[in-house]
Amino acid sequence: MTEAAVRIGLTVEGVDVRFAGTTILGPVSVKVEPGSVVAVLGANGAGKSTLLRAVAGVTPVSSGRIYVGETEISDVTPERRAALGVGWCPEGRRLFPGLTVDETLDVAAPGGRRERAERIGAMLELFPVLADKRRETAWRLSGGQQQMLAIARAVIAEPSVVLLDEPSLGLAPVVRDQMFATIRRLATSGAAVLLAEQDTPRALSIADRVVVLARGQLILDWPTTMAVGNPHFEQALMGV
Amino acid sequence: MTRFDRRDGVYLAAAALGIGGVVIAGDAYALRIASLVGIYAIAAIGYQLVFGRLGLLSLAQGAFFGLGAYASALLTVSAGLPVPVGLAAAVVVPALAAAVIALPIARLESHYVALATLGLAQLALLAATNLEFTGGANGIYGVPPIVTNSITIGPLDVGSVTIAALVVPGGWVTLISVWFGVLAALLVARAVTRGDRSAVLATLDNAPHAAAALGLNGTTARLVLFAVAGGLGGLAGGLQAHGLGVVSPAVVGFEVMVTILAIAVIGGRGSPVGAVLGAALLIPLPEVFRFLEGSYLIAYGVVLLAAIILMPRGLDGWLRDWFPRRAPAVPAPRQSTSKRPGKPLVVQGLVKRFGGLTAVDGVSFSVPAGTVVGLIGANGSGKTTTLNLISGLERPDAGQIRLGGEPLFERPAHHRRELGLARSFQHPEFPTGLFVLEVAAVAAKDRAVAMAALGRVGLADRATSLVSALGAAELRRLDLARALAAEPGALILDEPAAGLTAEERAALAVLLRDLATAGLAVLVVDHGMDFLLPLSDRIVCLEAGKVIASGPPETVRQNPAVIAAYLGSGAAA
Amino acid sequence: MIEAAAQLAVNAVALGAVYALVALGFVLVIGAVGAVNFAHGELVMLGGMVAVGVASLLPADLPVPGLLVLPAVLAVMAVAGLFVAGVAYAPLRRAPPTSVFIATIALGLIIQHGVTAGIGPEPRLGPPMIDSGTWHFAGIGLARQQLATIATAVALIVGVHILLQRTRFGRRLRAAAQDSEMARAIGIRVNVTVAVSFALAAALAGAAGLLLSNQYLVTPTDGAMLMLKAYVATVIGGWGRIWGAALGAFAIAVFETLVAAWTSYLVAEALLYVGVLAVLAFRPKGLFGEVEGRRA
Known about the structure:
The complex is a heterotrimer of chains A (240), B (573) and C (296). Chain A is an alpha/beta fold. Chain A is built from 9 helices and 10 strands. Helix content of chain A is 35%, strand content 25%. In chain A, α3 packs parallel to α5 (143-155). The radius of gyration of chain A is 17 Å and the shape is globular. The model of chain A is unreliable at 1-5 (pLDDT under 50). Chain B has 573 residues and is α/β, with parallel strands linked by helices. Chain B has 2 domains: 6-153 and 168-322, Orthogonal Bundle (ABC transporter involved in vitamin B12 uptake, BtuC); 345-420 and 487-572, 3-Layer(aba) Sandwich (Rossmann fold). In chain B, 53% of the residues lie in helices and 13% in strands. In chain B, the strands form 5 sheets. Chain B has a 6-stranded mixed β-sheet with strand order 12-13-14-9-15-16, with helices on both faces. In chain B, strands 8-7-10-11 form a 4-stranded antiparallel β-sheet, with helices on one face. In chain B, β15 (538-543) and β16 (546-551) form a beta hairpin. The model of chain B is unreliable at 569-573 (pLDDT under 50). Chain C is globular. Chain C starts with a helix and ends in a 14-residue tail after the last helix. Helices cover 74% and strands 3% of the residues of chain C. Chain C is mostly helical and 296 residues long. In chain C, β1 (134-137) and β2 (140-143) form a beta hairpin. In chain C, strands 1-2 form a two-stranded antiparallel ribbon. The A-C interface holds A 56-58, 77-79, 81-83, 87-88, 90, 93-99, 103-104, 106-108, 110, 116, 138-139, 141, 146, 153-154, 157 and C 168, 171-172, 174-175, 178-179, 181-190, 291, 294-296.
């Protein structure tokens, strides 16, 4: 990243998501300080993706408020949220299959031609595996490269809030290590990172706080130091 | 079922109004319009079966209409056969043609259904316009009318009283014949969608995965509905040919098709009675818009556009909002007497690859009859893929699955119900607009068995609710009831406890335990260890597509590899 | 003999280039909203009629009347495209794709019969792209009219290619077509890309209408046949694949011209439909499958 963005965090206040009369998430409140990583853990279907989608604006919330810094974004379209500094890397990557690496980064980058080129350059520095694949279409990349591209697409606009949904899924251990290191660097440069993850040890290794969701409810919100090695945390995680 | 539906009262009133109007107007012109309404109603009733019930945007109904018209005209004019024979051919020929195309059309992606049927219609139009025996662009003249003259009934001598002879003019005879055809079409449409067939069709259309797992086979339904649709389209065409006395390539043209489509949309997609109402509203329109001359189709276009935007469920849907469908009668629950014995499920060396990723990599385990086996593993470890392979939604690249000793490998999904396998879904699909009992009975022998299944999952008091009124937790129970109502020997469940409250989970655990005690083999995938560990006789744990541990719950829970897999790879727990 | 063959080849290429324009617009809308625009053929016809109307306003002895009319046709038809989006798509955004399909059938009826009611059913002669006559290459005379048609169509196709492949807006439009939710999440205004897709589709249809209007005349009932050919092109080129469909349309035109020269136009048309039905019977997803199947 070129320079640390203005230090702005994410605040989620009592957000719940209902579908067909049934609550599938919440109410959940989470705060992500700028420059920190909050790991969201929990079983499949616990509501991790729904929480991230609600912040990105692609799943409507039934009640509650979401703030980026002081700005409320609860009722704002996804495209406007992107402009206000929310970057979302969805589960399953969802790259645009017909676009090359360069094109994918270019459509996501704000600014004029020169500024976009600079931003793309910065991304290729951050994700060196993409540097010699610039003209490759997205669907020809390996799983790890695709994931890097999906993250790069989410952060090229230097969002103050970064939402990462299971970025380690389907990646080899070595690639996972690289990726978690990159995520930590994003936070160090000032972003507020909300990370939904299944790889608990690696998530804990970079997170400042950890929250656990179960059946749409937030059941635990601790500093990482308190969670590591704590049997209560492990029980919460295994749902026992 | 036999109780009077108040919506039908509205239709009867509309019919009385129509008859009254025609009698009062009484002239030949009114009779002709009323006959035309009936003819298009017949064609549209047929179309509702394919467009509304099978959910296929077919554009070939106009071609069947034309085929019927030509068949009847050729037989009566060129071969000199009597009109009833011609009309019979007008039903049979298009019905056969429709049956032939039914299966290839029904397996097309939805956006190609319209193209394929349009291509067929276009070929029919080319044939009608260019072949010699169809009379080319001029068509066929001198098609005999259904009745030539007035029919005289009487005079009758009743005792000493003589009733004067009643003379029924020809126009009335045609009109009455056509509307007998409408009545027959309504009865046929009702017969082929009667009772639980309606729910089966809705499940095939709206919930294809559930339909496959429940063993619903759409082949027969598609053949029958296509054939009936073609036959009714042809009958309408034949009646029109005899009514007008002329057949020209215009009967195969797109105008006929668009008219039928507009009638179906305005009347209410899938509703045969709605089609009659739609025809009664649309067919007289050109008379209202006479100033447009040949361009009356503008009016159809405007009405069709307005209907699809403002009233997408059509007039019948709108009436349904006012007069909701009556709930089905609730039978006494009955456990089937011919109870199927439990069947052991054995999985050996199962492999499934997606592109370069091996999602399931040599998985083997067994679920003996009368036991509950829990399948656990982190997200992406291959659990759902394993279930999909067992239930036949995915095909394995290698390995064998046996149910009660019978190999399931390469059997299509819809055979598995007969073999005694049922499953519930993580995200169950349901057909819309149906009652809970109807949904539960879709794969059951009868509604009494379905009622018993609803009772087992605690939904007996919801049997007469609409599915749309159920909450997510109730829908999951309904999904389970639907599977149980098929009376399986083995049951597989994908995250049945997700989203349930503690009490609901406890009740579910008791139910699953009861099912196992009754002899079923039960395989459960779930993340809730508090739910799964006490419930299961054995636990199988997957990681990266492989079985890393299996055994009694307590042993598996203490297994370091399992703890690592759950807390993530490399965890020193 | 050689001259006849060369002229036949030029005819085939000219018709192919025009069909490719038609298919390009058709598939742009499929990409943008996932639904068939059944009124697309009517837009081609309307473009031809607009060309006839605009040409009648120009003085009679201009050297390149068609070329002068082209910008007006593009502009008027782009507005017509926005109208189609507003009437037949925008109110049905959340409805299933069949609803959009049916709405465009209705709109097609309104356009076709509206034109008939307004100006009558007669065929009309559109402006030529260039004055008639022949150019000579290596002793072979070729109709200038056809060559001008090819040049115009190719220029438009290249223009669309540059817009979609080389400009940022074009890439954003393609991204939105591939995954609209994801596109919104990275800040792309999908409402805008959809509207532009409709406008562009109608403008290309209009240009095709202009190019067809001189040699083949333009009749209010022309639309259905043209739409059907664009639809068939998606079976050949792959559902939702922009350049595949354009190539498919080109292939259809070449096939049609050559078979028609060999036998008759009727046989060519019948064989085309039989061929498409055979493809669909054996490959229900079309000749080359679907673009979504490759989603990363």
